[in-house]
Write a structure and sequence with these properties.
The strands form 2 sheets. A 4-stranded mixed β-sheet has the order 1-4-3-2, with helices on one face. Strands 5-8-7-6 form a 4-stranded mixed β-sheet, with helices on one face. A hairpin with a 2-residue loop joins strand 6 (about 100-105) and strand 7 (about 105-115). About 15% of the residues lie in helices and about 35% in strands. It has about 140 residues and is of the alpha/beta class. It contains 2 helices and 8 strands.
Protein backbone atom coordinates (compact mmCIF):
# COMPACT_ATOMS: atom_id res chain seq x y z
CA UNK A 1 0.00 0.00 0.00
CA UNK A 2 1.35 3.45 -0.87
CA UNK A 3 0.69 6.63 1.02
CA UNK A 4 -1.63 9.23 -0.36
CA UNK A 5 0.18 11.98 -2.25
CA UNK A 6 -1.31 14.52 0.18
CA UNK A 7 0.39 12.79 3.15
CA UNK A 8 3.51 14.84 4.06
CA UNK A 9 5.24 11.62 5.22
CA UNK A 10 5.20 10.47 1.58
CA UNK A 11 8.00 12.99 0.93
CA UNK A 12 10.49 10.70 2.64
CA UNK A 13 9.45 7.42 1.02
CA UNK A 14 11.60 8.00 -2.05
CA UNK A 15 14.48 10.43 -1.81
CA UNK A 16 17.50 11.52 -3.74
CA UNK A 17 20.32 14.00 -3.79
CA UNK A 18 21.37 15.83 -6.93
CA UNK A 19 25.02 16.88 -6.98
CA UNK A 20 26.04 19.41 -9.61
CA UNK A 21 29.71 18.98 -10.48
CA UNK A 22 32.32 20.81 -12.52
CA UNK A 23 34.67 17.82 -12.66
CA UNK A 24 31.88 15.47 -13.73
CA UNK A 25 34.02 12.55 -14.97
CA UNK A 26 36.25 12.66 -11.88
CA UNK A 27 33.28 12.84 -9.49
CA UNK A 28 31.47 10.03 -11.27
CA UNK A 29 34.57 7.84 -11.08
CA UNK A 30 34.98 8.77 -7.40
CA UNK A 31 31.46 7.87 -6.29
CA UNK A 32 31.02 4.91 -8.64
CA UNK A 33 34.46 3.28 -8.59
CA UNK A 34 36.20 4.49 -5.43
CA UNK A 35 33.22 4.69 -3.06
CA UNK A 36 31.51 1.79 -4.83
CA UNK A 37 28.01 3.15 -5.39
CA UNK A 38 26.20 1.04 -8.01
CA UNK A 39 24.89 2.72 -11.17
CA UNK A 40 21.11 2.85 -11.36
CA UNK A 41 20.95 4.58 -14.77
CA UNK A 42 23.02 6.93 -16.89
CA UNK A 43 22.23 9.57 -19.52
CA UNK A 44 24.31 12.21 -21.27
CA UNK A 45 25.67 14.55 -18.58
CA UNK A 46 24.24 12.71 -15.59
CA UNK A 47 24.52 9.42 -13.77
CA UNK A 48 22.21 8.20 -11.05
CA UNK A 49 23.84 6.01 -8.39
CA UNK A 50 22.17 3.95 -5.68
CA UNK A 51 22.66 5.59 -2.28
CA UNK A 52 21.17 3.20 0.27
CA UNK A 53 17.41 3.32 -0.28
CA UNK A 54 17.74 6.56 -2.23
CA UNK A 55 19.97 7.86 -4.99
CA UNK A 56 22.80 10.26 -5.67
CA UNK A 57 22.52 11.87 -9.10
CA UNK A 58 25.81 13.24 -10.41
CA UNK A 59 25.25 16.04 -12.94
CA UNK A 60 27.25 18.70 -14.70
CA UNK A 61 26.91 22.36 -13.79
CA UNK A 62 28.62 22.63 -10.42
CA UNK A 63 31.64 24.50 -9.12
CA UNK A 64 34.89 22.75 -8.21
CA UNK A 65 37.42 23.80 -5.59
CA UNK A 66 40.79 22.37 -4.71
CA UNK A 67 40.34 21.19 -1.13
CA UNK A 68 37.11 21.33 0.81
CA UNK A 69 34.57 23.94 -0.22
CA UNK A 70 33.66 26.39 2.53
CA UNK A 71 30.15 26.12 3.94
CA UNK A 72 29.28 29.40 2.21
CA UNK A 73 29.65 27.56 -1.13
CA UNK A 74 28.33 24.17 -0.05
CA UNK A 75 26.81 23.78 3.42
CA UNK A 76 25.83 20.16 2.67
CA UNK A 77 27.80 17.05 3.60
CA UNK A 78 27.20 13.57 2.20
CA UNK A 79 27.21 11.12 5.11
CA UNK A 80 27.86 7.41 4.78
CA UNK A 81 26.79 5.44 7.86
CA UNK A 82 29.07 2.41 8.15
CA UNK A 83 29.59 -0.32 10.76
CA UNK A 84 33.32 0.40 11.21
CA UNK A 85 34.64 3.88 10.37
CA UNK A 86 38.30 2.92 10.85
CA UNK A 87 38.05 -0.09 8.51
CA UNK A 88 36.24 1.85 5.78
CA UNK A 89 38.67 4.75 6.17
CA UNK A 90 41.58 2.35 5.60
CA UNK A 91 39.88 0.96 2.49
CA UNK A 92 39.38 4.47 1.11
CA UNK A 93 42.97 5.44 1.94
CA UNK A 94 44.18 2.38 0.02
CA UNK A 95 42.16 3.73 -2.92
CA UNK A 96 43.90 7.12 -2.66
CA UNK A 97 41.34 9.06 -0.60
CA UNK A 98 42.75 10.98 2.37
CA UNK A 99 40.38 10.37 5.31
CA UNK A 100 40.70 12.06 8.70
CA UNK A 101 39.17 9.95 11.50
CA UNK A 102 38.10 11.63 14.74
CA UNK A 103 36.41 10.27 17.84
CA UNK A 104 33.92 12.28 19.88
CA UNK A 105 31.72 11.39 22.84
CA UNK A 106 28.82 11.10 20.37
CA UNK A 107 30.59 8.83 17.86
CA UNK A 108 33.36 8.30 15.33
CA UNK A 109 33.56 10.12 12.00
CA UNK A 110 35.90 10.07 9.03
CA UNK A 111 35.93 13.16 6.81
CA UNK A 112 37.08 13.45 3.20
CA UNK A 113 36.22 15.35 0.02
CA UNK A 114 35.24 14.39 -3.50
CA UNK A 115 37.14 15.70 -6.57
CA UNK A 116 35.03 18.89 -6.63
CA UNK A 117 35.74 19.66 -2.96
CA UNK A 118 32.35 18.55 -1.63
CA UNK A 119 32.46 17.36 1.98
CA UNK A 120 31.78 13.70 2.72
CA UNK A 121 31.75 11.89 6.05
CA UNK A 122 31.76 8.36 7.39
CA UNK A 123 29.78 7.85 10.62
CA UNK A 124 29.71 4.82 12.88
CA UNK A 125 26.36 3.15 12.29
CA UNK A 126 26.72 1.33 15.61
CA UNK A 127 25.79 4.63 17.24
CA UNK A 128 22.65 4.15 19.40
CA UNK A 129 20.82 6.58 17.11
CA UNK A 130 20.91 3.96 14.34
CA UNK A 131 19.93 0.96 16.46
CA UNK A 132 16.79 -0.61 15.12
CA UNK A 133 16.85 1.29 11.83
CA UNK A 134 16.29 -0.78 8.70
CA UNK A 135 19.40 -1.15 6.59
Amino acid sequence: MTRETTDPAALTEHFGIILGTERYADCLEFYRDVIGMPVWFEKEGLCCLRFGTGYLMIETGGLARDGRKPNSENPTMLRFNVPDVAAVAETLRARGVPVEVRTYDWGVIGTFTDPDGNACELKDAGDPFFQGMAR
